Amino acid sequence: MSTEPNSTASAASTIAEDPVKVNNASVTDLKNACDDALKRVLDREGQFKQQHRHIDVRLGLGYANTVIAVGSSLYGWKYDFETAKPVVWVGVILYVLLSAAQTLYTWFIEKDTVYVGKRKTFAKRVESERITIASRTVPHAPSPLAGTPAITNAPSYSLTLSYVRTSGGGKTLIRRSNLADQVQSYSAFFEDDGTLDEVKYSAWVEELVKKVVGEEDGSTKVE
């Protein structure tokens, strides 16, 4: 995946002026910093446009729960207990069902997904590309980046990428590929004081994206 010079310069400037620094004793902070940096890499000009379906669904369910809770409470406050009881019970049941739906959606549909992006390319035909990336923390990395000392059992960052390219409004499949469990130790990307080396991290992510979209040979499975 080629990167526009202006985009690269802008990213480098942002990194220099506003470095990301976290508590490197917190695996959650390390993962969140990497997830946020991943979105910045892929959202650069000329790359993918992030889709927010998962966030929209969770927010929609959350807002619906809030409306039901507030509405039931106001109804119970306005009317006497016996009159309000059926409505309040309905509100409680709906609240529980929506809360369960939100939890199930997160567990079984969204899972570890941190980025979904789309873009269109125009050549002899209009082609649509969709990339989905999931991240998680694993106990340790099998091999750190070159020049980075190995740390036994150090927590590591794992990415799984899937990519689909279609044309004709999704009717014709051009490429489908996956890269599973691409792992690097957090120590490969963070300094001792918790500062993220965003240049090194961005280079790693861009290399993985090149592989999954087919811009270089690799272990990508193409169907």
From TrEMBL:
GO terms for cellular component: signal peptidase complex
Membrane-spanning intervals of the chain: 57-75, 87-109
One GO biological process term: signal peptide processing
Keywords assigned by UniProt, alphabetized: Endoplasmic reticulum, Membrane, Transmembrane, Transmembrane helix
InterPro entries: Spc2/SPCS2 (IPR009582)
Topology of this chain in the membrane: Multi-pass membrane protein
Entry annotated with the keyword Cytoplasm: no
Subcellular localization, as worded in the UniProt entry: Endoplasmic reticulum membrane
Function, as annotated: Component of the signal peptidase complex (SPC) which catalyzes the cleavage of N-terminal signal sequences from nascent proteins as they are translocated into the lumen of the endoplasmic reticulum. Enhances the enzymatic activity of SPC and facilitates the interactions between different components of the translocation site.
Family statement: Belongs to the SPCS2 family.
Protein name: Signal peptidase complex subunit 2
Classification lineage: Eukaryota, Fungi, Dikarya, Basidiomycota, Agaricomycotina
